[in-house]
Amino acid sequence: MVVVVAYGSEDQLAICLGALGRSLPIVVVDNGGSEEAHRICLATGATYVRPASNIGFAAAVNVALRDHRVPASDVLLLNPDAHLRPSDIATMRDELHRSSD
Fold this sequence. Notes:
This protein has four helices and four strands; from the N terminus they run E-H-E-H-E-H-E-H. By secondary structure, the chain is an alpha/beta fold. The protein has a four-stranded parallel sheet with strand order 3-2-1-4, sandwiched between helices. Helix 1 (10-20) runs parallel beside helix 2.
């Protein structure tokens, strides 16, 4: 599961979600409440969450995990300016599970 916390970064969000593709569950918590961010999420298949106000990064992550957590999945937290491909995430996941520390 990928959690992206956004605020006023629609151009970067579009690139970020485009790079991720549709192979992973993605939740975007938009602290800025942008209609454009909502449209981007609809177009890319990401779940869009709009809090009532800017609740900050940590609280936004908590909202995503509380309401949209995928059982038994790893969680990757991203800012909208991160541009990772699914293969990059697979490499990180494999290393995470291979490492004992």
